[in-house]
């Protein structure tokens, strides 16, 4: 008994000494960062994976953990589990989880919340919304980067047809498709061409959707359908939905793929040789920045909006296909990017 | 008395052993997929120690996440039961869909269509729930009945087509599941069902008056749906054992030719069974929407309709067995959450466990062979017969 007391005393004094020694340069204690993921799993090679990578990159000031959702019925209990585990920052990954995040945030005003892809406002049945103090919305002007991808595609297509489709008609998905179509339209206007986009109509807001973010077979069928209709560049917007087509396409080389969210090059198991580029949405960076804010006690509910200007969205390098993209087109894409950043080109 | 105990012992022996084997194999998988454990493969004792710790922690988390967690009991011990309440919330719709599949088994039918029937139940309940203003009590009743009615028709179509044309119910139900799945996607795009201000597939929340009352206050999600589910189990038991029509169901299930010779109308039994099965699964959808979800979305059914098949198999198509099997699945699902966040064991492992349990249940000969058990229990034959009804 005495011996153990002695040990405890030694241990305690050791902690004291090291604690004091480190104190001047010491960081604040690490915060507990908890990610409530959308369906699709942590290794979806896209959305959830990007978010989790951002949380892991915050290791310097946050201990991160996540919960994956098997269906939307898991959202509320997953968030509740985090509240019970005393997480200091709970981030809902995905538009669909937003209303559950808001509910939990109102019940726990002392916890910091953030939600990816939604403003995180509290809306009533008639869609009158007001912001919630402890919820930070992380949204992205992905249409800016998708606009570049649209322009690029229009310049690259040989058949005069390109295509896009989404997982489900969430605003965070359709914004990609809007930007993409407008980019193609802009190319048509500037060059006097008639490149058409299958799969999305910006005025009627209707188009092709898989219906979820997990049915890769349905996505493959859609991709093949567009291929048969003559599209030679396809932009699937929705996690890893496009993966099987990208892989199948490696052999047939019928169409080029544009990936979304996280640079697909090196991430996709197959399909590098037909991957034109990626419309990158820096979810990870936004998560890291809000985690840092909480760790530094600077958290506010003010929204974060990722743009080309603040590098929250971007167009990834062309990688293997760089030699096939004409130099002139590359220059034009870069010029348009600068114009969007400068605000001289309204998309 | 002694006889009863030995009978209960008989009937839980097989599921119990299947259980044990599934958890053993899952334990091995957990240990082998843990990097910290595999790093110690050099020294056998250290390896076994850390493997034991890894598996022990995972199963402890599974228990804490599904039954009782003392860390949650701050002001009183009831709060520690939060995980158990969550287990019940998850199990409630599963009990009802499981009963739907179990009842079909009894009539020799393989109802793969609980998913579609569930969706129609959810649609009916949601519509009545958000569109009408009715007094409390009546509103819940009307919403649940609307869901059951739609789902009974959806199930009845299968029964009618099988009875009239001899089309196989497995094909029919699978195809109708697809139709239901895409129907709800379309429906949620229409003006009537789309929530104002949204373009993603989600319906308005059901009115307060249509929500099932909460049983343990605002902080817990447990709702009166569990009583509905238990009542439904009682109803199925009563129907099968105490009524003439239930006797006919079982007679057709045991041998449809003999039943026909004995003067039972097989087409009637098939249609009636499928309608009741539809209503049960539909009630599951209604309870899910009115109890815990409150709003209809495209993903509302998750995999509940398919898990129902497993639950019914595990419950050996008995009402009480189905209730316990659903509770087990609910516990595995909610406990899996804690396992995932505390120990980093992915939720997929839980699905593996579920799969293994069913694998062993469905292969009684294999389990009997391993444990050198003698007699084949009569009802085990029923659940493994399946496909040709």
Secondary structure elements and pairings:
The complex is a heterodimer of chains A (347) and B (389).
Chain A: H1 2-22, E1 31-36, H2 47-56, E2 62-67, H3 75-84, E3 89-93, H4 98-107, E4 112-116, E5 121-123, E6 129-131, E7 135-140, H5 142-156, E8 161-166, H6 171-191, E9 196-198, E10 200-201, E11 206-207, H7 216-228, E12 233-237, H8 243-252, E13 256-261, E14 275-281, H9 283-295, E15 304-306, E16 313-315, H10 327-342
Parallel strand pairs in A: 1-2, 1-3, 3-4, 4-7, 7-15, 8-9, 8-12, 12-13, 13-14
Antiparallel strand pairs in A: 5-6, 10-11, 14-16
Chain B: H1 2-32, H2 35-38, H3 44-66, H4 82-106, H5 114-131, H6 138-165, H7 169-187, E1 202-205, H8 225-242, H9 244-254, H10 256-261, H11 266-293, E2 295-297, H12 304-314, H13 319-343, H14 347-362, H15 364-371, H16 378-385
Antiparallel strand pairs in B: 1-2
Helix pairs in contact in B: 1-3, 1-14, 3-13, 4-8, 4-11, 4-12, 4-13, 5-6, 5-7, 5-11, 5-12, 6-7, 6-11, 8-9, 8-11, 8-13, 9-11, 12-13, 12-14, 13-14
Explain what this protein looks like in three dimensions.
The complex is a heterodimer of chains A (347) and B (389). Mean pLDDT of chain A is 87; it is low at 11-26. Chain A has helices at residues 2-22, 47-56, 75-84, 98-107, 142-156, 171-191, 216-228, 243-252, 283-295, 327-342, and strands spanning 31-36, 62-67, 89-93, 112-116, 121-123, 129-131, 135-140, 161-166, 196-198, 200-201, 206-207, 233-237, 256-261, 275-281, 304-306, 313-315. In chain A, the strands form 4 sheets. Chain A has a 6-stranded parallel sheet, sandwiched between helices. With 347 residues, chain A is of the alpha/beta class. In chain A, strand 10 (200-201) and strand 11 form a beta hairpin. Chain A folds into 2 domains: 28-140 and 283-311, Rossmann fold, CATH 3.40.50; 142-281 and 317-342, 3-Layer(aba) Sandwich (Rossmann fold). Chain A starts with a helix and ends in a 5-residue tail after the last helix. The radius of gyration of chain B is 22 Å and the shape is globular. Chain B has a two-stranded antiparallel ribbon. The longest helix of chain B is centred in the N-terminal third of the chain and has 31 residues, at 2-32. Chain B has helices at 2-32, 35-38, 44-66, 82-106, 114-131, 138-165, 169-187, 225-242, 244-254, 256-261, 266-293, 304-314, 319-343, 347-362, 364-371, 378-385; strands at residues 202-205, 295-297. In chain B, helix 4 (82-106) packs antiparallel against helix 11 (266-293), helix 6 (138-165) packs antiparallel against helix 11 (266-293) and helix 8 packs antiparallel against helix 11. Chain B has 389 residues and is mainly alpha-helical. Chain B is built from 16 helices and 2 strands. Helix content of chain B is 72%, strand content 2%. Chain B has a domain at 90-329. Classes of the chains: A alpha/beta (347), B mainly alpha (389). The interface between A and B is large, with 33 and 38 residues.
